[in-house]
Amino acid sequence: MSQRFVTCAHCRLPHEEGSARCPFTGPPLDPGAPFVAPPEGEHAGRTLGGRYALRERIGEGGMGAVYVALDTALGREVAVKLLLGREALSASRFAREARAAAAVRHEHVITLHDAGALDDGTPFLVMERLEGESLDRRIAAGPVELADALAIASQLLAGLEAVHRAGIVHRDVKPANVFLVRGEGLHVKLLDFSVAKIADASRLTRSGEVVGTPRYLSPEQARGAPFGPQADVWSVGVVLYELLTGRRPFEADTLAALVTSILLDEPAPPSTHRPELPPAVDRVLALALAKDPRDRYESAAAMRIALAKIARYAGADTVTDAVSSGAATLPRWIEPTTLVDDAPPDPGDA
Ligand SMILES: Nc1ncnc2c1ncn2[C@@H]1O[C@H](COP(=O)(O)OP(=O)(O)O)[C@@H](O)[C@H]1O
Ligand SMILES: [Mg+2]
């Protein structure tokens, strides 16, 4: 699905089309305002790094454009993501993050094959090409079955365990970054991790926020506090809540109100929206969405195990299978090196 952006006349930053208001300055976005998007067609037909022949564009988010491409060296199809508009990106940091991301090998995480830069310095990533659709589309079609929601969340958590083990916090787990791979049964892959979200300067942090909706942001990220892998656990909680109820646990018209809601509101238990949900689902989501990370599931694995228990109870075998393939116990996993001192947008800074 292609995302488009509307330029806010006040902050002059691009926001997702469909956002009614500017998340930073508050006024309604003018749907007639010019669209900002990575230049269409400009890169199709190019060959990057003497090797990757770009064909058509298959997706875009706030960070850039994703193309299907031919890896002419190996004769296979790949996906290439151009990280457009990243002028403050430091090449050495990009390379370091790309190496960390490339170390993650997991069936529920997109596989990174290569990384490079154009002559003008624009970084690009080469990854496996997926076919299917991103989860935001599925969610738009309405709430999903309990077993499917549990399977999606469990696979996502299993993928995150691998990401976390590599010392990476994803930081932007949301339906647009989760891909449902076409094929038999449900197969989820986590996209768009860390590499694209390197915050090298406050400018980038800020534009990094513009890219994403802050709806999935953990309270510690929203507060600008140091955060670790449990921030991703929170985001999975928000995604699961939405999968089950079709509603967002935190929703507001302005960024300030949204951040306040994330920091203070206790969302209604999912069963208030869908009474047939087992009480254990309410409990799991209360623990995933605990404001204080010390009260939250201590790891992605801990939440996945809790979901597996519900799945067993609800007779959803796929989740039990997913669990038996992963590590059952992990130590509490927050190392200082994994903390990100990324400042979120200041809600008062309108
Ligand atoms: N490897 C891939 N194969 C197929 N489609 C992809 C792939 N990577 C990304 N996409 C599509 O492109 C969209 C944007 O990719 P993403 O990595 O999230 O970029 P951004 O950083 O711009 O958000 C995704 O939602 C997805 O639909
Ligand atoms: Mg994305």
Give the secondary structure arrangement, pairings included.
Layout: E1 5-7, E2 14-16, E3 35-36, E4 47-48, E5 52-60, E6 64-71, E7 76-83, H1 91-102, E8 112-117, E9 123-128, E10 132-134, H2 135-140, H3 146-165, E11 178-181, E12 188-190, H4 202-211, H5 219-223, H6 230-245, H7 255-264, H8 270-273, H9 279-288, H10 300-314, H11 317-324
Antiparallel strand pairs: 1-2, 1-3, 4-5, 5-6, 6-7, 7-9, 8-9, 10-11, 11-12
The chain binds adenosine-5'-diphosphate (ADP) and magnesium ion.
List keywords for this structure.
alpha+beta; Transferase(Phosphotransferase), domain 1; 2 domains; 11 helices; 33% helix; binds magnesium ion
CATH fold-level name of the largest domain:
Transferase(Phosphotransferase), domain 1
Count of separate structural domains: 2
Q: What's the total number of strands?
A: 12
The amount of beta strand, in percent, is 15-25%
Gyration radius (Cα, Å) is 20 Å
Q: Helical percent range?
A: 25-40%
Low-confidence stretches: 34-41, 198-212, 320-350
Strand order within the widest beta sheet: 4-5-6-7-9-8
Q: Ligands in the structure?
A: adenosine-5'-diphosphate, magnesium ion
CATH class of the largest domain: Mainly Alpha
Q: State the CATH superfamily name of the largest domain.
A: Transferase(Phosphotransferase) domain 1
SSE class: alpha+beta
